[in-house]
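User: Can you write out an input/output pair for a complex, sequences first and structure second?

Assistant: Here is one pair. Inputs:
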Amino acid sequence: MSTTKDFIVEQLKQQIEGFKSSVKEQTVGRVIEVGDGIARVSGISEVMMSEMLEFTSTNNAQINANNPEFNKIYGVAMNLEEDSVGVIILGDSSIIKEGDEVRCLNRILEVPVGETIIGRVVNPLGEPIDGKGEINVEKYNPIEKIAPGVIARQSVSEPVQTGIKAIDAMIPIGRGQRELIIGDRQIGKTAIAIDAIINQKGQNLKCIYVAIGQKKSKVASIVAKLTEHGAMEYTTVVLACASDPASLLYIAPYAGCAMAEYFLDKGEDVLIVYDDLSKHAVAYREISLLLRRPPGREAYPGDVFYIHSRLLERACKLNQDYGGGSITALPIIETQAGDVSAYIPTNVISITDGQIYLEPDLFYQGNRPAINAGLSVSRVGSSAQVKAMKKVAGKMRLEAAQYRELAAFAQFGSDLDVDTKAKLERGKRLMEIFKQGQYMPVSIAHQILIFFAITTGLLDNIQPDKITEFELGLYKYANTSAPDILKEIIEKRDLNDELESKMKKLIEDYKSTLEYIK
Amino acid sequence: MKTTAKQYAQYFYQIVRDKENEQLKDAVKEFAVVLKNNNDLAKANQIIELFVEIWNFEKRIVEAEITSAKKINIKTEELLIDYLKKLSKAEEILIKQKVDQSLLGGVIIKYRDKVLDGSVKATLDELKNKLIK
């Protein structure tokens, strides 16, 4: 007993011996005005732009003697004026009073990063809010960082498999790309992003979901869904919900990006979803107006373009000399009544490498995901597709485009020639194939199989309303009776004549077991 | 356009800068009349505050607040003044003393917008945080 006691005492002694206290000169100031999540501070003459500041509250009602950390609230210097500093308060501003002391911390705002944040739900300051205890981290990354330069980058070459057939085939997303998801409220923007995250299981891609100004209930159900599909094993959720102050909403995407950059620096691939940037712009507008910066179009401040461009520019694909990691960004923008020409949507459209445009009409017709294939583009194009997919999808894009044109035209005419009729029939089946349920991502091998089936005309004698049933049946059949073919597709990533004939035989074998095909 | 308190303070500093006795009294009187005519007498307190700031800055005077656990003796005070003179490059140091027993030992020096916390309490807190880690 006594030996352990001695041991503990000895250890403590050692630790205390090594301790050296140093008196540091600190710069302090006083709050002269506080309100609406903004404080004006006098003093702190040497403060840096966007430096982290610490408020020490003297409000007696809030003082918690056991936990001095409780009284600490952080802020960020945003406006450096002649004789005061405008500070945004990251937390509850109601306990800060006029005359409170403000300390400079001599560092730019930082968030904890590392492997341990995977699988957690954190706030934009990196503090856990999922009730799973403290997060042990060793490293902190500044939330604002200049994006990698031209020398460090490489063009996008590897695909991100979203598991959504319409996207993987027609609007391929590459690792390091920035693809905007845009559309009205309630038509499945978040669903696409979540499906993409769910499909990353075993794809060697870390995911970060940044919820900006979302309802807590919505985020809770998203986290539950991700957990259910085992996606939280590689996902971090950064949450700044609707009830948080605008300052937290504003820093959330930068914090998420700082966490992603930790993995980028290690040469890993990351997918980051910003849901959504229109609320981020609104939060920034609120801060700017309260800081009395002059308003511009739609009352947004002059630098509203820059807040999004500097954020999305941090998405990148690094070349091998710099570790070869990548950050793929999927920003989401909510439009009002389909108006893509509003200020923020046009800004973000011009920054990103393409957009996925979701349309209410398609959604209510039952085409879900409601992707408008005509307006959606991916500027990276087919260089982010595996060869096998390139072969089958190239033809399919053309057929889909032809169908859209003919379908509008065919509404007026009754007598159509055989060729047109065939194209229309093929198109109908194609549209059926692009329909897909939520949380049901399709693997790349299955996608290639079904696309191969439609482009080679093997589905022409199946009624359009039976296509979905056939598709699901085919996947099951292929899994059980020909797993080697699926494996071959994934391994070779390309199609040759031999593999094509094998696939053809597989599909025909399955068709012969069905009764509804004459 | 309205004249701000800061502008008044600067103006006041300029007129009293190198005047003495009678001249000084006249200048102050003159300034008070200007304030009255401009209906700005309400700003007087603010102006005085700002004027002291400007005066101290121009004459290189630093006001320092020293908080300690016990009242410090004259020898230590002189040492601290010398130290502060070097640190802040000031010519004159005005000291305000405060006693706070919760510091346990050491001193906290505040001057301009700087704080030097050399108290035993702060050192112990630092040690505590380190041991927790």
